Amino acid sequence: MSLKIKDIKIIDKYIIKQILFGLLMVSSILLGIAWFSQVIRLLSYLVNNNLSFFSFLKMTSLLLPDLMVIVFPIALFAVVLFIYNKLTSDKELIIMEAIGMSARDLSKPALFLSTIITLLCLFITIYISPIYATKYRTFIFDSQNDISALLIQEGEFNQITEGLTIYVRSSKDNILSDIFINDQRQKKRIRTILAEQGIVSTTNNNITLALVNGSVQEKVKEKYTFGTFEKYSADLGVIAKNSVRSKRMGELGIIELINSKELGYANDSNYSKYLVEIHKRLIQPFYNLLFVLIALIAIFKSPLNKRSNSKNMFFAVFVMIVFQFLYISFFNFLRIHPNWYPLVYLFTITALIVMLRFLYSDKVLITKGFKRKNEK
Fold first, then answer.
1. Are 71 and 31 in contact (CB under 8 A)?
2. Are 255 and 191 within one domain?
3. Do 31 and 74 fall into the same domain?
4. What would the 3-class secondary structure string for 99-145 be?
5. Looking at the DSSP assignment, which residues form a beta bridge with residue 176?
6. What is the pLDDT of residues 320-375, one digit of tens each?
7. Domain residues for 215?
8. CB of 364 within 8 A of CB of 373?
9. What are phi and psi of 6, to 5 degrees?
10. Are residues 123 and 180 in the same domain?
11. What would the pLDDT profile of 44-97 be if each residue is shown by its tens digit?
């Protein structure tokens, strides 16, 4: 039976659609689980820093690019293994081979998608992740240094220092509304201040409260004075925290990592860690392609019968776990011996080439309990 190019394209689109749909479902579930685990871990941060739920969601969403790079290889592996195994169980794969399609032809859709995902993850690790990591660390730093959120809770009497109590009805974007201040830090001079609005700011590293439209009642030696004001500055007697932060390794781009010593981020003792981070960002995305090749070999290089399908899947999962273990081990080794970094590239490139050549060859994978392809 002759097979036209048009027919091949239809089959390719059919397989691609199934993989894309499965990838969307599985990656969404895994991303949701990974993201939710981060939300649980950061719940105490939400409470301690008085963040709104929307701000908290915004903060945790900045973790998604890094989570995507971790989730995609596993999701892609699981989906490709499941889809091709389903095609085998439903006899569709056998029919496709019977009309003249080879393993090379049938594996093209999965390899095409895995190449696209690999390039996407490479773009994320090189460009997107540093940007989002910077936004995430900046958000945390700003919230930790949001003076009004740290010192003053809405609807509560806040004792800022001994003898100084402040109450505000509401606080938004560092602007306080309906303010009550009772200042008894000087026993001989007690002040009570009311104001419509106020802004917390720092002046000469001291935290002050700039008040608008209010009144001041002062008691000095049993004498009371009363006055109103349009503008008033109250010194809270608190030293402001450091308002400058330095970038962490995850926030640096590739060029910054290379020049991290010259830029002052690294020193002689930890410079190797910055170099390892470069290799990790360049290598990690290629595990999308590597894991897909493992799944395809398990399917196309083993007998196409239902009895062996579960064994194929277990074998593929085992090999994938081994490669994941080796990946982690290599980079743990590089942190101690950074000069051995070519070993990681050699291993990854060799594994890709060997698996691709084996997939396109006529050889059959032989594992315990499997029959040869042509054996009856």
1. yes
2. no
3. yes
4. CCCCHHHHHHHHHHHHHHHHHHHHHHHHHHHHHHHHHHHHHHHHHHC
5. 171, 198
6. 999 999 988 888 888 888 888 888 899 999 999 999 988 888 766 654 444 434 44
7. 153-239
8. yes
9. -60, -40
10. no
11. 766 666 666 777 788 888 889 999 999 999 999 999 998 888 887 777 777 777
